[in-house]
Write a structure and sequence with these properties.
Strand order of the largest sheet: 2-1-9-6-11-4-3
Strand content: 35-45%
CATH architecture: Sandwich
Radius of gyration: 17 Å
Structural class: alpha+beta
Number of helices: 3
Largest sheet: 7 strands, mixed
Order of helices and strands: EEHHHEEEEEEEEEEE
CATH class: Mainly Beta
Shape: globular
Low-confidence stretches: none
Length: 203
Amino acid sequence: MQGRDWLLTGDGQYQVCKAARSWNLLQENYRLYRFLTEIEDVLNGVEDELICLPEIRMLVRRLIVNSYWVRSQYLEPSSTTGTSVVLLYDELGFPLTVQTVTFAPGSISTIHNHGTWGVVAVLKGQEKNTVWRRTHNPDFPDKIEPTGEIILSPGDIISFTPDAIHSVEALSDQPTVTFNVYGETDPKQRFEFDAVTHRAKKF
């Protein structure tokens, strides 16, 4: 499941990053608990967590290469919302969100940022990420414009800075499943954007 690594930033830029080779990451008995511990070790004492994104992408790739259990932990999408979420780890005081998300074919998310860093790996299906940026319009400070699109397939990993803005559409005729890990969200910095009214609201 070798794929590409991407980085999206708040200025609407996106780039392919160097990805670790899957066959170099094969490891016996690499389980979720080990992944969580290694993520904590990477982030421990780091002032700017964004510098850790390359290593976090590598750890995510190692996890999905080695853990069939993680790749199998998802639900069918809800018939009401078109999505389903499985929280893989939840402990009081643990600052990260670790989950799988399933999107029904044709599902489209809102335009949003995450208010924290994030790393998302596609496990099944295919999704289109539309990348956006603020236009710095003095009359509409939350006006945004698209800067491009990225098509992600199984094995592809995309990472975000806290202010990166995107929207997601599930493209394939089967549900799209992703593995997601996010840092600690700053709720004051997480927004949903309206490209028609040029307004943003708290997510």
